[in-house]
Amino acid sequence: MIYRKLRKLEEQKRDIQSLIIAAYQSGADPEVVMIRVSDLIWDIDILDREIEEEKIFLGFKWGLALFLFASASFIIYGLINQL
């Protein structure tokens, strides 16, 4: 569930890569192919940045969850020791 967006972004990247391969394999004019491939490479660069941002965000979420769990554990431990 947490990795759903990351998986979706990686799937979009694979789709774009397959479109690049299809563009090269088509019998179209080389100039048209290069323009199309250039646009697709631009899209891949954008997706790569989004994937990296998502990985950083996931690390932040896990770090925050660990911090909250540790804090709650210390608070509960302190309350139990006071009794």
In brief, what are we looking at here?
By secondary structure, the chain is an all-alpha fold. The protein has helices at residues 4-25, 30-82.
Overall description:
90% of the residues lie in helices and 0% in strands. The chain is mainly α and 83 residues long. Helix 1 (4-25) packs antiparallel against helix 2. The longest helix has 53 residues, at 30-82. The radius of gyration is 23 Å and the shape is rod-shaped. It starts with a helix and ends with a helix. The mean pLDDT is 88.
Question: Secondary-structure map with pairings?
Answer:
Layout: H1 4-25, H2 30-82
Helix pairs in contact: 1-2
Biggest sheet statistics: none
Which descriptor suits the 3D outline?
rod-shaped
Helix-residue proportion: over 70%
Q: Briefly note the structural class of the backbone.
A: mainly alpha
Total DSSP E strands: 0
Q: Mean pLDDT across all residues, rounded?
A: 88
Continuous helix count = 2
Radius of gyration: 23 Å
What portion of the residues fall into strands of 2 or more residues?
A: under 5%
Give the low-confidence spans.
Answer: none
Order of helices and strands: HH
Distance between the termini: 39 Å
What labels would you give this structure?
90% helix, mainly alpha, rod-shaped, 83 residues
